[in-house]
Amino acid sequence: MTNFFLDLINLEFFVLLLVFTISIILKLKPLQLMLLIFHVITIFLLNDVLFDSSYMGDQKRYLEAAKSVRLFQQPADGFVNSVGISGFLFSIFPIPFMISIQSLSMINFIIYLLLFFYLKKQNIFTYGSEIFYLLYPSLLLYSSVGLREMLILTFMIIVVYQFLVKDKYIFSVICSLPLIFLKPQNFLIINMCSTIFFFFKKGDSNKKIGILFLIILAFFGLKNLILSRFTIPAGFGFIDVINNYRNYMFFEDTRSYVEGYIPINNFFDLFYQGAIGSFYMLLKPFPWQSSNPLQLVQSIENIIILFLMIFLVLKPINFKTLRLKANYLKMMIIISMSIYGMVVFNFGSASRYRFGFIVVFFIFYSYLLNKNRINLLKYKSINPNI
Prior knowledge:
Elements: H1 2-26, H2 30-42, H3 58-70, H4 82-91, H5 101-121, H6 127-135, H7 137-142, H8 149-165, H9 169-176, H10 179-182, H11 184-199, H12 207-227, H13 238-254, H14 267-283, H15 293-313, H16 320-343, H17 347-382
Helix pairs in contact: 1-2, 1-5, 3-4, 6-17, 8-9, 8-17, 11-12, 11-16, 14-16, 15-17, 16-17
């Protein structure tokens, strides 16, 4: 009961105050304000109400890490890992009391709110992407629980914003460094896409240096990702490394090393599994695979998201620079879904892993389409006969 009252203080004197302050600054419409308030209520309707908090067991680890840091103690898992770094980042938010999973969930909502404010003030949102941000069920879920997904999403948005919008390539790499500890897979995927992007970009006198820098960092991310999981036996080839990682992830998701696991045998099999995996990664669980209401909602959401993505991708982009940037986002989705599709076997894990990439894709692809529309109007005003 004490925790409940302390969380009410967190809610009233910090969270709601921030909601109303931002709504005044941004001059939000009543419906937008109502959606944000509903979002706040959701924090108290998920853990230990709609599902047991043990369903997302890592929440307690992040909470204990954040509490330890606030007491100037080292977290049980140490600092140099995803739990320790997440706990440190959660602890620095000036929420008065860090006493429950709901406290941590409120911090994630604050991150969600600050991202909304930032994207709105930077004119990144379009009408469609703003609606998406406010209504996307997975974003509602992960900003209302005590996991690290909102921290990961924050750095992903900052990196892509610096890379695509501001054209600050090296700075975007620097901004991606926290992902090495929070989510090394995402660090690797984003910088891999950035490296490929440079091969198709003309000009830029620092191109070779930028590519070399990105390759080194991508390699570091790959090394950190693989070696943090397991020791690779001497003489292992590329396919063996992937199978070793898949086997590790399969056991982590299913607690079985044998049943249902199919190894990759060659490079053709690798590309085949990547293609099939990307499709499944975007859509699983299918409706008939859903074992609870949450999975059914995720299944319906996945189908809608796929159609929305196709709708956006089919829209023409007339300017070469914007097309190149749009291809960067397409590549990020394809590579991320292919890689995760080969190694993720659990529905809950699939939802968490794809969530950040989908949010980034919708926000920035919509931004590029809007930029294309504005540029086209300017071009036609200068050349009225075209």
